[in-house]
Amino acid sequence: xxxxxxVQVILEIMLAAFLSTIIGWDRESRRQPAGLRTHILVAVGAxxxxxxxxxxxxxxxxxxxxxxxxxxxxxxxxxxxxxxxxAHHLTTAASIWSTAAVGMAVGVGAWLxxxxxxxxxxxxxxxxxxxxxxxxxxxxxxxxxxEEAKGEDNMDDRVVNDYNR
Length: 165
What we know:
Blueprint: H1 3-29, H2 36-55, H3 62-79, E1 81-83, E2 86-88, H4 90-107, H5 111-134, H6 141-150, H7 155-164
Antiparallel strand pairs: 1-2
Helix pairs in contact: 1-2, 1-4, 1-5, 2-3, 2-4, 3-4, 4-5
């Protein structure tokens, strides 16, 4: 691997670390099981593996990408907890998976794509959460629990009616 390619990979890793900080900060601020450091390490690792597969490995570089996706799926599955028949931390698992994709995009040199994906991921994590709370468009877990306790099974109807308001 040439010195120039190594410098390029280091710059890409720095960008992946920065972009994943934006995503990980949301998870950290909400005290989720995978926070800032986890997201940074996922993106840096994915970027490094991808950069190495592009610049250093001969043959099928897609194999490395496939293994990154598999490994991140395993890591994300570890954050999901089952309580009372419901899965918890799915958003955090999805953010880990998405952060790996951002790292991989940076690793292949798709910087603009990775920046755009980061903006979209951040928007889903932050802006959609605010919409959920402020407009009550999407019922949160507390609302669902209260309505289930009342014996109301028509949450889907209520969501549709709220959406059509």
